[in-house]
Structure formats: C-alpha cells, structure tokens
User: What shape does this take?
Amino acid sequence: VERTLAIIKPDATEKEEEIKDIVLRSGFTILQRRKVHLTPEQASEFYAEHYGKLFFPSLIAYMSSGPIVAVALSKDKAISHWRQLLGPTSTFKARDTNPDSLRAIYGTDDQRNALHGSDSYSNAEREIRFFFPDSVVE
Ligand code: ATP
Assistant: This one.
C-alpha cells in the first residue's frame, strides 16, 4: 500500500462528509485527518514549487481564505488512484472530460477546484510530513 495527501480546499469543506463517503467507497483508508486554517506564509511554503507563477498570489489567497481539511490516505497505488478520482486540475475541463470526478462535482472554476492530491511519491511524503509532522514513517 501507498500513502498520499488529500486536501479538501476552502470551497469544499462544507461537503466533507459527502466527500468522505466517496473516499471510503472508493477503497481508501483514512489514516489521519486535520482541519487547519493556513496562514499565507504556510500556504506559500506548501505550494513553494509554484512560486513565481502568475496564479501564485491568488492561489495563496484562496488556500488561506478559510479552513481546509488535510487527510492522509492509503490504498494500493493511492497517489495515482486519488488523482484519477480528482479529475483534471480545471473544474471546467473536469466537467467536460470526466463528469464523475470529484473536481467536476465539487469544484468552482480553474483555481477553486475543491481538492488537492499529491503528484508523486516524494511530494506525498513531504506533504504528509507538512500536515502530520509526528506521523510514523513505515
Ligand atoms: P493540486 O496540486 O492542488 O492537486 P494539480 O496538481 O492538479 O492540483 P497544480 O498544477 O499543482 O495542479 O496547481 C496547483 C493548484 O493551483 C491547482 O490545484 C489550482 O488550484 C491552482 N491552479 C493551477 N493552475 C491554475 C491556473 N492556470 N489558474 C488558476 N489556478 C491554477
């Protein structure tokens, strides 16, 4: 089994219970969960790889605009399976190409896309440590 980090972003935290049902029905195990309101500094640290991009300032404003829910998930091939369930980055593209995906259902626009998923093994481990610094590495 593999671990990944999911985030329910500020525009979707009201749908947490609904999203949790889909997560469990899709075969993921919820290892840890934490609700947190990031400061702009913390959001910038989390998204450091996007620093300098045009959308960076508004991404930081969005991600620090309200509480988020960080969830560590596990499953066989969790990283790719979770991103598949999320659908494309843009909510609009998700609605066009994968209407059953979580972003198609819960997203708002290109930026406010409801959910995050780690994109690689090393990012998953870094992101899990970011939100759950005390978690035991197996
Ligand atoms: P995430 O990392 O949140 O799972 P992702 O890997 O699909 O999403 P990235 O390219 O890593 O997408 O971008 C990180 C986040 O920045 C996106 O989820 C979205 O909220 C925002 N974003 C990405 N591209 C754009 C864009 N062109 N315009 C506005 N916001 C964007």
In short: Helices lie at 16-25, 40-46, 56-63, 78-86, 91-97, 102-106, 121-131. Residues 24 and 100 are 16 Å apart (CA to CA). The longest strand covers residues 29-36.
